User: Which sequence fits this backbone?
């Protein structure tokens, strides 16, 4: 049986994989934005930058638990990481449907969310619930897209998002019941498996020159 | 239901038409581009001059008639567009 410290270490290492995958997807999407000026890719890149930074914050907080000299115990940092993640999921979900102006408005609404006077635990519960809701929305939209395109990679993304949704659900449960052992590790494993599936398009992506819309290279 | 085309999609469509219809190497006329492009004459001519200005299309003046063919840069842009379109479609998005 794994000790609590071992589980925390595994969880922390997995968070760093999440950071790498998120920033890799964001990088390819940003290249797409530079070349095609596509707002869909901009929202996708924004989503993964938020997710990557959110995972990084969580990983640093986790490292603090393992190495007291690096301790980052400020509650604001923990909530901040979760808020960044939820915002990332928000952009991921709504890149399918809504226009940029609305996305900005709702994104701002999410960022001012902590101003509502909730306790830290309640705030984490609410953010985890929203993260779950946004990912589930993304799952439905991606499955819908798969029905249209029949691309295997799109199906993988849908499965990946489903695993992330299951992960966020466990995260919510662990916060709800204040149980941070196996449930938390399960959440991170599911989340990372989902992210690794979403890494497939990055692996299959082939760069094809660098000509932009204005003709510059 | 008709799908909304983004500006980059319209540009890619015009470049594709200029590439596919240029079978004899003498370029493609505005009429053929309009037929495939599904947009007004004014909008098409404005877009064509922008694409020529950016070097994605070449303008050939034959007997006072302008014809257009895709440039090497345009071919490269189309290849990049298609790879990013593929990437976006995988995530269930449209460019």
Assistant:
């Amino acid at each position: 049986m794994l000790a609590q410290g071992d589980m925390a270490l595994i969880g922390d290492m997995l968070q760093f994989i999440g950071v790498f995958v998120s920033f890799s997807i964001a990088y390819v999407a940003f290249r797409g934005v530079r070349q095609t000026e596509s707002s869909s890719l901009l929202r996708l890149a924004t989503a993964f930058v938020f997710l990557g930074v959110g995972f990084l914050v969580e990983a640093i907080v986790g490292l603090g638990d393992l190495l007291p000299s690096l301790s980052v115990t400020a509650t604001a940092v923990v909530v901040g990481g979760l808020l960044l993640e939820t915002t990332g999921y928000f952009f991921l979900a709504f890149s399918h449907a809504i226009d940029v102006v609305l996305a900005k408005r709702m994104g701002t609404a999410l960022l001012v969310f902590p101003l509502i006077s909730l306790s830290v635990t309640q705030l984490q519960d609410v953010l985890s619930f929203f993260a779950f809701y946004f990912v589930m929305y993304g799952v439905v939209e991606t499955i819908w897209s798969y029905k249209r395109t029949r691309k295997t990679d799109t199906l993988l993304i849908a499965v990946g998002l489903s695993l992330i949704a299951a992960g966020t659900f466990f995260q919510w449960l662990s916060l709800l019941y204040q149980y941070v052992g196996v449930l938390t590790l399960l959440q991170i494993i599911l989340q990372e498996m989902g992210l690794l599936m979403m890494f497939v398009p990055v692996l299959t992506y082939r760069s094809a020159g660098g000509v932009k819309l204005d003709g510059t290279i | 239901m008709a799908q909304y085309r983004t500006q980059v999609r319209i540009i890619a469509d015009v470049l594709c038409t200029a590439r596919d219809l240029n079978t004899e190497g003498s370029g493609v006329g505005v009429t053929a581009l309009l037929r495939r492009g599904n947009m007004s004459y004014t909008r098409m001519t404005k877009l064509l001059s922008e694409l020529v200005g950016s070097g994605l299309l070449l303008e050939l003046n034959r007997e006072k008639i302008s014809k257009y063919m895709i440039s090497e840069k345009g071919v490269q842009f189309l290849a990049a567009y298609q790879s990013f379109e593929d990437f976006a479609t995988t995530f269930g998005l449209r460019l």
